Description:
- By secondary structure, the protein is of the alpha+beta class.
- It folds into 2 domains: 3-126, Alpha-Beta Plaits; 131-172.
- The chain has helices at residues 3-19, 33-45, 55-62, 88-99, 117-124, 129-171; strands spanning 22-27, 48-52, 78-83, 104-110, 113-115.
- It has a 5-stranded antiparallel beta sheet, with helices on both faces.
- Helix 1 packs across helix 3 (55-62) and helix 4 (88-99) packs across helix 5.
Amino acid sequence: MDRTEKEEVVASLKQTFEDSEIVVVTHYSGLTVADMTDLRGRMREAGASFKVTKNRLTRLALQGTKFEDLSDLMSGPTALAYSTDPVAAAKIAVNYSKDNEKLVILGGVFNGQSLDVDGVNTLAKLPSLDELRGKLVGMIQTPATRIAGVLQAPAGQVARVIGAYGQGGEAA
């Protein structure tokens, strides 16, 4: 890799860091190509990304960003999980590391705050933005459904009473 390619990689990583809400640093030693492909697929489905990076270039890209604290974690076979959704990258990485012990969570940064392994695990337990949106829509729709049911109930009762009188009149 020549100097211009390295500069392009650093610029690309820097842009990635500016666009992301969370970055989780992992060790991936021992993962097979199939494992990595599976993990990347899961990340992509959740709106996150997983990328193996060169530590030296990543440290350069981290300078001056809100993720600068991650520089200390950049040693060994590291890969980054990142997303614009504040929970997606952490959730997928933690869930995958439970299934495959070869993926080791080292830490991360969310919203400019450093997270240790426990912090990343705690963040992974929170619902994602899509789940929160679904719950919010459900909460908004529930009162409207109840109001419609309450408004329709008296009309239904009147119809049943009239129907009962009609049937009673036919029998007489």
